[in-house]
Predict the structure.
Amino acid sequence: MVRAAQQGDPAAMEELIQGSYRAAYTLALRLMGNPDDAAEATQEAYIRMTRGLKKFREVGAFPTWLFKIVSNVCMTEMRKRGRRDIPTEIESMEDPTPLDAEDEAIGRVFWSELEREVAELPEVYRSVIVLRDVYGMSGEETGDMLGISPGAVKVRLHRARKRLRDGLVDHFPEWASGDDRESA
Amino acid sequence: MDCREAEHIIWTEGPDAVTAEHLIGCPSCRNESRRAADLQAALIGMRNRFAMPPVELERMIVEAVTRTRLDRARDIVSHPKFWRGAAVGAAAAAGVAGAALGVMAARRRVARPEVA
């Protein structure tokens, strides 16, 4: 599909968009925290993707490439606007279907709480957690994207994870105690 | 390795980075490591959970992308380089066609000398 889109097939391009735009939008929403900004950034990312598609060689790595473009657009836009902490409006997240056993075990409540905790992190921490831990970018890639050193990524990551941990411990004391598994 | 050091490693490098030796003897760090592993798995799981985009977003993206492609095609066609290239291409094609006709005529002469 990527190859056909590269060769200018409009149907393939539409299919490519259809199969990826929700993931791209979700990443933008997680970074920017506002649906309108996220939608705008997603559109801009696809325009940039179209411009660079012909030169793109690693066809199998398309989602990763697209995520990098989306992240770049979001970070540039956020820097331009000088935003720091922004209100987040992530209201609904759709579970992948069918839910696997692990998802069910962790539970819907946990997911929505986690989503909320991530959304409420200060932007400097949220961007690191989203890029590094959620979307699996390397420390170097994350640093490049945010314009900080890999060392600074590590420091922010540590603080962000601890904040998430503390937030979740407040809401799930049984998870904090760990008695369930220790005694099992 | 003391517990403070272990905890720092767990939340910076990941739950697997702490030595098993320390975890075996320390229930508190074992729990912390388990919490970090849970969190790590949950964060990875977030990648497969999608927000609901605005209903018109897909259409808007397709339109924007189509516009971009048309603009690019228009830019290419309106650029003098394109026409220089086209002229060179046309000249080259004419040359090749002329050469091919010459070869064909020569072959015909060889095959039917009476025509010549």
